Each structure stands twice: as C-alpha cells, then as structure tokens.
C-alpha cells in the first residue's frame, strides 16, 4: 500500500512540470502502463489530475483548491508562538510577531521580557511603521512600485534623533533591508530601546510575518543585542519551514 501511495504522489510533481501522457508517466515511475493508468484514474476520480482531450494528463483543479484552502487556514501566530516562547526563555528579552494588514503593521503576538523594565507594546496595536524593524522587513518585501507609493504617502514623525526623516531615507533603508534579509531599530522609536528582526516566509518565498527581539539599553547595549541576530534568524527560519510545510518531522 505504501508503495502505491508513493507512486501516486510521485505523479503530482511530474505533472507540475507540464502535461504528460500515459507513457511518460509510466516511464518516470518505472512501471507498466496498466499500473500508471490505474494510479492516474484514482487521482482523476479525486480531482487531483485531469485528462485533456489530447489524452495527456495535467494537475486538477481540486489540487489547487486544497492548496488554497490549506494556506487560508494556516495561523502563523499558532505556529510561531512556541518558538517565540523558546527564544524568550533563551535570551530573556521581549519577543514580538507582526504582520502587514491594510497598510498597517500590527503586533499579533508578544512574549514579555523576564526583566523588570517592560515595553508598552500591545497585541493588536499598530507599530511605528517608519522606524520599527518588523515594519521595515514587511514593507521591504513589497514590489518596488508599491514600496515607493507607500513611502510617499507616509508621515515621518521624528520620535528621536535616529528616526527616519523622509521618504527618500525610508526607501533607502527598505532597499538595504531587502538586500541583507534582516532589520534593526536602534533607538529610532525610543532612544532607550533597540530591536533586531527577521522574516518569516511562506512556501512561495514571500513574507507572511516578521519577528523581533527588543531590549532597553539598561539591560543590554545595541551591540550586545545584535549578537542575538543569528539566533533570531534561525528561529524565524524554523517557523518559516514549519509554516510552509517543509520542516523535517522530529
């Protein structure tokens, strides 16, 4: 039975390359045409493959519908939360998870610092979009025309002397973030708070969320916080693999 399932599933990536006839499927699987036909008929009955008028087979609409339904039902917060908690337990600092929705970047999860000095951020609250590390990551992933149009519409409040002052500087920062694959906010929103952030990606490579670690200067310096960047990026990569379904089962 397991061999039959394995062979049937092997047909799907073959057809993802383009339509194939019975002989091509049989050759790829290394089986007789009668066996390949039996597998194709089963997949066809479930809507996972479709037989065209030229007798070649392609992927069926049901497969795309299932994939779309699975993506829509994914909850990045649920998947990420245990990893955010583990990161917090390891480093002790505040950990955030944020998403980009309707021209705002919102915190959707937070694990509090173990230290007495706490941040005032709240789940469901928009971030300071022109300076927050998570916002830079999420906006840097937008296509260039969208990035430029958004940058031109934003206000640029000077929270501190390190805040992003205007659209030109913001676009330059987003280009840098897009190239390096991570972001920081070193006193841009609050003089005493520093933050490092890493991206969480879906199966298509696009960002679905961003996570960050933040800490006040009285706990760690900016340089000390930056040493956590490899750990933050590894955590984000782990969440990305689990979210996209490419994680290796333990």
Secondary structure: number of strands: 7
End-to-end C-alpha gap: 24 Å
Overall helicity = 40-55%
Main β-sheet, spatial strand arrangement: 4-3-7-6-5
Radius of gyration: 23 Å
**Total helix count?**
10
- The fraction of residues in strands falls at 15-25%
Overall body shape: elongated
- Low-pLDDT residue spans: none
The chain-level mean pLDDT equals 89
**Sheet with most strands:** 5 strands, antiparallel
Q: SSE order, as H and E?
A: HHHEEHHEEHHHEEEHH
SSE class: alpha+beta
What does it look like?
Keywords: DNA-binding, Transcription, Transcription regulation. Residues 2-61 form the HTH iclR-type domain. The protein has 10 helices and 7 strands. It starts with a helix and ends in a 6-residue tail after the last helix. 47% of the residues lie in helices and 18% in strands. The longest helix is centred in the middle third of the chain and has 16 residues, at 76-91. The model has no long low-confidence stretch (mean pLDDT 89). It is elongated and about 70 Å long. With 250 residues, the protein is an alpha+beta fold.
Q: Keywords, please?
A:
alpha+beta, 10 helices, 250 residues, 5-stranded antiparallel sheet, two-stranded antiparallel ribbon, 18% strand
What's the topology here?
Blueprint: H1 2-16, H2 22-29, H3 33-45, E1 49-51, E2 57-59, H4 61-72, H5 76-91, E3 94-101, E4 104-111, H6 133-140, H7 144-153, H8 167-180, E5 183-186, E6 193-201, E7 207-216, H9 222-226, H10 229-244
Antiparallel strand pairs: 1-2, 3-4, 3-7, 5-6, 6-7
Helix pairs in contact: 1-3, 2-3, 5-10, 6-8, 7-8
